[in-house]
């Protein structure tokens, strides 16, 4: 995770975010460090980033601007929107009031723990 200013375009953080993906173990052999595909919305529709993803061996699945809705990415986008809605359940995270990013990240981690705890309680 990386924290940037609110006036920063998300697409500028795409490649640094991919570089921070941890190794995924489980299958025999060398742990994977990159995904097979990257699913993104229209905000990431730039030829430059599509090209850079292909150079890294990642298949870009990005909704195109100017094309009618119905690309099928909404099924996956729901997971992101639902997660953001859960985090917005904590008023302090809706708007970043803290000046220090470490405090904001601590509240974000605490909210994640509380959300997980609530879901585990429902399962038990």
Describe the structure.
The protein contains five helices and two strands. By secondary structure, the chain is mostly helical. Helix 2 links the parallel strand 1 and strand 2. The mean pLDDT is 83. InterPro entries: Transposase_11 (IPR002559).
Search tags:
single chain, 124 residues, mainly alpha, two-stranded parallel ribbon, 5 helices, 6% strand, globular
Describe the secondary-structure layout.
Elements: H1 14-19, E1 37-40, H2 47-55, E2 59-62, H3 74-88, H4 91-94, H5 101-123
Organism: Streptomyces marokkonensis
Pfam family, one: DDE_Tnp_1
InterPro entries: Transposase_11
Structural class: mainly alpha
**Major beta-sheet overview:** 2 strands, parallel
User: What is the helix fraction of residues, given as a range?
Assistant: 40-55%
Oligomer: single chain
Q: What fraction of the residues are assigned to beta strands by DSSP?
A: 5-15%
Distance between the amino and carboxyl termini: 30 Å
Strand order of the largest sheet: 1-2
H-E string: HEHEHHH
**How much is the radius of gyration in Å?**
17 Å
Total helices: the number is 5
Average predicted confidence as pLDDT: 83
Number of strands: 2
* Anisotropy-based shape: globular
> Uncertain segments of ≥5 residues (pLDDT<50)?
none
